[in-house]
Amino acid sequence: MSARLQVEDKLGTASVRAIERAAKLLVSRRRPEGYWWADLTSDSTLESDFVLLRLWLHPPVDGVWNPPDRDRVNRAAAAILQRQLPDGGFNIYPGGPSEISATIKAYTALKLAGIPAADPRMSAMRERVLALGGLQSANCYVKINLSLFGLYPRDFCPSIPPEIILLGNLIYKLSAWTRAIVIPLAIAHSAAAPRPVPAGFHLDELIAPGAGFALPNTEGFFTWSNVFLVADRVAKLWEKHGSLSVRRKAVERCKDWMLARTRHSGGLAAIYPPMMYTIMALDVLGYPASHPEAVEARRQFDALLSDDGERFFFQPCFSPVWDTAISAFALGQAGHSGPAVDRAAAWLVSRECRQKGDWAVARPNVEPSGWAFEFSNEHYPDIDDTAMVLLALKHGATRDQASSEAIRRGVTWLLAMQSKDGGWAAFDADNDWKPLERAPFAGHNAMLDPSCPDITGRVLEALIEHGVERNHPAIRRGVEYLIRTHEADGSWFGRWGVNYVYGTVLAARGLRAAGESPREAHMLRAGEWLRSIQNGDGGWGESCESYDRGTFVAAPSTASQSAWAVLGLIASGDDDSLSLQQGVEYLVETQSPEGGWRESLATGTGFPRVFYLTYHSYRDTFPLLALSEYLRYRNQTRGDLA
Q1: What is the pLDDT confidence band of residue 65, given thresholds at 50, 70 and 90?
Q2: Which of these, 425, 431, 418, 426, lies nearest to 451 by C-alpha position?
């Protein structure tokens, strides 16, 4: 036996043992109800927003702010301070630089919580804010939030008039998450007077001298930016002089829209920002704190808080469907189908969305189906979750009629949600009217929900797994979309995971499932690109900074990104390269004795350049999947399964 085969035998044996440990650990983490649910964490901005929300709900009395949950505010302040960087600022992803908006939010929250302005930590924060451009350089939502309390000039904030809901289907031109934010925020924004702050409280010390407040237009006169700036000025005039009856009608329509989408849901869109703005909107609408709608809105929001005495943090949302689908798929691919996967499959089937949501505006004649990310979010099933659930349902006891029908509906729904460009987006089809990206309130960098390679690749894999023929027009159009969006360096952009590694892996897997030969140029280039960015330790890592630069930026190796790269190499047809072996060795050698992996960096994406996510399940599920696929593929190609 050659030395290389001896090494491969040793690596195969080690991989089998690693898979067994990882599978055992993953099964032990399954909830009694049959699902998996891990933490989903982000940056300090959620805790900062929480403090501002407390000020909204419990205004100062005689100029003194003493909220009834002062202890919780203090714990939020302590949690924020734990994340302060040595230069005084706050970042939006682990290992990242100070970011202006996160730092302004933190400063505001800490000052409200009673940290003296003379405190060295506050002084360092002020210096960092001013160095980054001052209060005027915050993103639009920070400015809007502060303007609600008179802490930023409202005349220099983007207007969000509730009348937007009266403009036909314009609201549905916005991405699902943006419209869910904009509608309740428009209600809160419609309040005539700003909310009170403690006596003498201001943020004047954060204003950069010499910098203006006006909304900028750096693109010239005949541009969409200028069109929206003119529209913003018109909206401001309307707010002061427009018809009160029209305003009342618009607010009422916004209220009805908002409340309808809190039904069959864990809060509006089941994500933190709309849920926070719903609480504020209900208050503006005059709902007393004891009203069932207000009580339920606060209950759902408070459920996002984890406060066990040691840790205090908010999750941006819950991820049980996503976590369960990935876990069940990884176990199934590892050959561990059994009671755990069977129960997970049954639980997933029970989570199918069976009523029409916002997606139906673009696809009105499609039977409702799909799966959401969270426990309950009936109005917002998403395409990525649906594809992942369908992949998971290839394993487990899903042969009964109810499961078969759910799978059929899910496949039909996915096919219907394909966009005109051949790709798939997250929540809607053809949500890509680019002029909206120039709107003044587009500061979260996610006004639209266009097709993306990562979701398209996963959808192709799921559809083919459930019997859609490779020559089906939808499959061919999806393949053409991926080939068309291939980057010059051989990678694909990743919208929902960091970044080019994620996009490349899912695009390659989708293309391979669709029958693309590993000898095709785009497949060869994908594999070559993955090999070219491998770290010296055998793993892979990519920084969130990739989104800022528009190209791959290396980072220390992570378990999840290394697993993605191994999966991508296999999908590209690489079954024996040194890079592949070293990637597998990295995963085997970094596994803990308990069967898991450590990971401290963010590898999930909320809004590129604005908000990132750490999925605490990724570090354990994807390495299990990668090692399993490695052994499966090696067995198929060389009959060398150890």
Answers
A1: very high
A2: 425
Q: State the pLDDT at residue 193.
A: 85
| Residue 430: C-alpha distances to residues 351, 418, 542 (Å) | 26, 8, 30
Which of 229, 228, 250, 253 minimizes the C-alpha distance to 239? 250
Q: Name the residue among 54, 295, 317, 273 with its Cα closest to residue 177.
A: 273
| pLDDT-based confidence at residue 3 (cuts at 50, 70, 90) | very low
CA separation (Å) from 175 to 270, 427, 556, 592? 15, 8, 33, 40
Comparing C-alpha atoms, which of 130, 21, 5, 3 is closest to residue 627?
21
- Over pLDDT 70: what percentage of the chain? 94
Question: Of 232, 283, 358, 384, which is the active-site residue?
Answer: 384
Q: Whole-angstrom Cα distance, residue 79 to residue 70?
A: 14
Residue 40 has pLDDT above 90, yes or no: yes
Domains delineated in the chain: 44-138 (no CATH), 152-204+218-314 (1.50.10.20)
DSSP state of 271: S
546-600 tens-digit pLDDT: 999 999 999 999 999 999 999 999 999 998 899 999 999 999 999 999 999 999 9
Judged by DSSP in three states, 477 sits in: helix
Distance between CA atoms of residues 181 and 606, nearest Å: 14
Does residue 384 have an active-site annotation?
yes
